[in-house]
């Protein structure tokens, strides 16, 4: 499995699923991402990413309960698979490794809030 | 809990849903719409309604990406070959599991197809007659439409001598047409020498070999027009000169070793003329309505002395290619009228009719060619299609009845994901498979039955299995039958709702039940119709054969006056009367059972009005004629040798008397041609020709020295053999140049109704088959019904129902079906058969009992068919039927 198999948006979505488990489904993921990034995130985009991730085997899904808010429709709940977890860890390892090696002069100063 | 649809203000725009439903994959719709709704609710709470709606749009548009669109190919679609294999497997399992049903289905369909194929062989054979000529499209036969004082009649044989104004025979119509009409390429007369009213096989002699042979005369264009292949000689010269003759291969072999040897040889005709053989043609086969073993050139016949059966005969022409035949017909119409000076109230119009059709259009209505035999061809085509439909209906009915059992299968298939079109395909495939099995079976049957069928219908047919188009026809029929019979079950079963089926809620809807009953009624109506028709046809045929004709046709043999007999009749009579087996000998100028010769101008009678004419049928007989045929004299007396004046006496029948309007006829003057005399007696009307025709006015006189006519010999009952030996001896002694040829009067009479006899035999067989097939269907329904109601019967029996009450419960349903069918079929049958009987001047009446008998027998047959099943169901031990579940 190549790393390029995990796009940036996909990575974030995957991570969000991990955060929100066991109640991770498209709408809450989209809301969460909106809150975190302050940008508009459509469920369509999230849904598409979830679908791709599931196809790649990083997620599994099952139908949850129907809610009135969804017009009596069921929600599809997602869980990260072992493969998903592994790839998240790999990505994180790469990043951590890189962060660890960043010299102070390598990054212009900025205030992180 | 809030439900969005309870708050109209919180409902997102509906048609976005629809758009999603239209564009997005059905599997994803729940997810997508759920997300959209939920997000909308959140937005409404957070923002204003208007903003929420705008946002909703954006959200919805985000789904317009390929990942969510409908997939064109469903990834669950199985490979077609696997599916077909699977269908065959289920079809096979189903067939084997329901052995009885499958047998009934296949057997019924195979029987139906067998009937269909046999009938269509017959139809094709009939239609093929006279249609083998290479120039077929340009060949026409002339016909005449004669109007005489308001009477209109027509025929293919044109009366050529009718207007003998200058005493000359007019034998040249064919030649004149060719000369006067540029449209006509070839033309020929064609006159047989062996048919009624006066024909007979002519005697030919080569060396010492003598044979009586049936043949005709034709003009020189004959072989150029018609495709009768020549084995020797050529079409150009075969009949081009006087005293030419063309003979068949068969005839050539009678006289010579090889057909080619015949060329140029002289054959002696009727011991008076020598004819040169100019061509040998292949024997005419059954595809030709013109049957002849020789053709004498018309130049010879026109000279006189050559026999023609009648004073009128057909004329055939071949038009040039691309001639407008309607325009030509218009030009031709008044040809005879312009050529002859006819009386004012008399016209003979000519018309043309395609030669290939003249055999089937054998009758005339209003002076124009009418349906004739074509009617039978059409009727039987209809019967064939009916029978096939009956067989298909069986199939349909049984399959629908059985479908309850298969409803579960359909439910499971649908749940697993089979689409409706797959199910339709499956059921149609099953019925097609069965119908192909039936085809194979029916081909075997046809092959086995064909020899009998040929005997039966007087044909020589074979299955044209080497003909590609026939196979196309077979396969087309099979597919049509398969589709027709599979269509209803396929549509019905595939429409079942899986939820209901799997819950066990399937019942036949009212309409499905009605449909099934309707099919059974339809089927039985057709069968009853056929049964009534058969009964009527065979009774009419019987009636015709056995009707008391007013004369005694048994034990009468007749032979023609020819050769030395023309002068030695008296000697023969004297000689025969001393020989064993012979009871009586007399003579007649006409065959008594079929007097076709009709004249009007030569007859004058006392009290005749100016211009009044009656078409008389004249015959000249000997003194014992009336005694021999057992004719009844109602007034006056019969001819007698005791009165010397009787040689100039006349007798007429009642019809003649009525038409002449004569009172006190005895002793009144009457004359025929030059002969003048008095009426001495009135004959009771007897049938002088076939029963298709009314009794015509008859005039009889004595002529013992006429040089033509028939010698009639009455034999002692049971001594026919001895009588024939006597005849042989006497003929050899008195008329040595002519081989003896004789006919039995009763057989010749029966031959007048050959067509009806064949029709009657055919319809008997097919009606029985139709009933049989219908009963197979009924049997299937009864079996099904018994099976369905096993539990019901068990419960009834436990509660004390008697066997009888159960049987009657069951039979009632079927009795109702048959009764309804009868009510539908009877009036139709009455209407149709009434029409058919109109074709006979003398016919049976459509008695009520014919219908009663048919109705009752249909009922009995139906009851008998279902009784076994009913009885079995009724006698079943309730323990076994109620044990399970």
Q: Give me the secondary-structure category of chain A.
A: alpha+beta
Total beta-strand segments of chain B: 28
| CA-based shape of chain A | globular
- Give the count of structural domains of chain B: 4
Return Rg of chain B in Å.
Answer: 39 Å
Percent of residues in helices of chain B comes to: 40-55%
Beta-strand residue fraction of chain B: 15-25%
Major beta-sheet overview of chain A: 2 strands, antiparallel
Mind explaining what this structure looks like?
The complex is a heterodimer of chains A (113) and B (885). By secondary structure, chain A is α+β, with helices and mostly antiparallel strands. Chain A has a single domain (3-94), classed as Arc Repressor Mutant, subunit A (Orthogonal Bundle). Chain A has helices spanning 8-20, 26-37, 43-56, 82-101; strands at 59-67, 73-80. In chain A, strands 1-2 form a two-stranded antiparallel sheet. In chain A, a hairpin with a 5-residue loop joins strand 1 (59-67) and strand 2. The termini of chain A are far apart. The relative contact order of chain A is 0.16. With 885 residues, chain B is α+β, with helices and mostly antiparallel strands. Chain B has four domains: 4-68; 136-359, no CATH class; 376-544 and 754-882, no CATH class; 556-750, no CATH class. Chain B is 50% helix and 16% strand. Chain B has 26 helices and 28 strands. In chain B, the strands form five sheets. In chain B, strands 1, 2, 4, 5, 6, 7, 8, 9, 10, 11, 12, 14 and 15 form a 13-stranded mixed β-sheet that branches. In chain B, strands 20, 21, 22, 23, 24, 25 and 26 form a seven-stranded mixed β-sheet that branches. In chain B, helix 13 (420-457) crosses helix 14 and helix 17 packs across helix 20 (720-734). At the A-B interface, helix 2, helix 3 and strand 2 of A face helix 2 and helix 3 of B.
